[in-house]
Amino acid sequence: MERLTDIGNIRDILSRHGFTFSKALGQNFLINPSVCPRMADAAVQGVPTDASVGVLEIGPGIGVLTNELLQRADRVVAVELDKRLLPVLDETLAEYDNLKVINADILDLDLHKLIAEEFGGMDVVVCANLPYYITSPVIMKLLEEKLPIRSVTVMVQKEAAVRLCAEPGTRDSSAITAAVRYYCDPELLFHVSAGSFMPAPKVDSAVIRLQLHEPSVHPKNEKTLFKVIKGSFAQRRKTVLNSLSSSLSLDKQKMRDILETAGVQENARAERLTLQDFSNIADALEETE
Q1: SS3 call for 100
Q2: 201 burial via Cβ count (<10 Å: 0-12, 13-18, 19+)
Q3: Per the structure, how many domains does the chain have?
Q4: Both 44 and 176 in a single domain?
């Protein structure tokens, strides 16, 4: 681990392979030696001690976090988009025989097939250091596809972590807050300073864990629920009546009737609604169609 978090060693390794950082891919490699062990411990937490553990890692970079995961899991499959990093990983993780690296875009993969083929019979968790620009798409893919996984432990920008882990009905809540709560219990574990990375980003990060569970509400139609959530936050400064009537292209009186049926005040704002409120609106909407 020391050699993979030492700036001099990292520069030597990257130089030998002719690697330069890509801003477009949001590449920031961890160099703080205390972060990855904590993150790896959090990733496998909750898995029964007598179970085989499989970890799907997204964006291994040069393998600093991967190194820790390999010591705790029976098998790690790391999905890396940047093919320039493949020879780097071959060097930094050469001592392990429980690793497979796949050069692909995680958003394009059939994850049900991957998990079935690579982790047969194992308890599977996901772990990742996610660039800001793909945080929401990746997290929603992992949740919406209803994969056979226990949890998702990810490092994201601090601002995104606050939104993802916000309590429904609070000022920090957003559309993704409600969507995430539908599938799991989010928990903000610890903060990570910008100086923990090379190159250092402009903002701090945080590690969160999403513990999957069965949906806590039961709408008649999930697609309608998420349409309502998205529409409610589309114009968050407006009341839920105005935002939904606009986003759903519904007459205001019809929308007013739907809200009344759902037991939601028409002058309420989206961030003050609970997941049950959104579900009630979705069900009332379904009844009118």
Answers
A1: strand
A2: middle
A3: 2
A4: yes
- For residue range 65-95, list pLDDT tens digits in order: 999 999 999 999 999 999 999 999 999 999 9
> In the Cβ-directed half-sphere of 205, how many Cα atoms lie within 13 Å?
24
Is residue 217 domain-resident?
no
Domain boundary among 212, 241, 271: 212
Q: What angle do CA 135, 66, 131 make, to 5 degrees?
A: 20
Asked if 154 and 182 touch (Cβ cutoff 8 Å), the reply is: no
CA dist., res. 266 & res. 219, Å (int): 20
Report the alpha-carbon distance of residue 218 to residue 231 in Å, rounded: 19
**Token pair 């194992």 is at which residue?**
122
**At a CB cut-off of 8 Å and minimum separation 6, what does 231 contact?**
243, 244, 247, 248
Same domain for 65 and 159: yes
For residue 268, being part of any structural domain is answered with yes
The 10s digit of each residue's pLDDT in 131-146 is 888 999 999 999 999 9
What burial class does residue 52 get, using C-beta atoms within 10 Å of its C-beta: 0-12 exposed, 13-18 middle, 19+ buried? middle
Helix (H) or strand (E) run with residue 243 in it = helix 240-247
Query: 187, exposed or middle or buried, with CB in 10 Å at 0-12, 13-18, 19+?
Result: middle
How far apart CA 98 and CA 77 sit, in angstroms, is 9
Give pTM, 2 decimals: 0.91
> Quick one: pLDDT band at residue 288, thresholds 50, 70, 90?
confident
Q: Are residues 148 and 8 in the same domain?
A: yes
Best CA proximity match to 47, nearest among 125, 117, 119 = 125
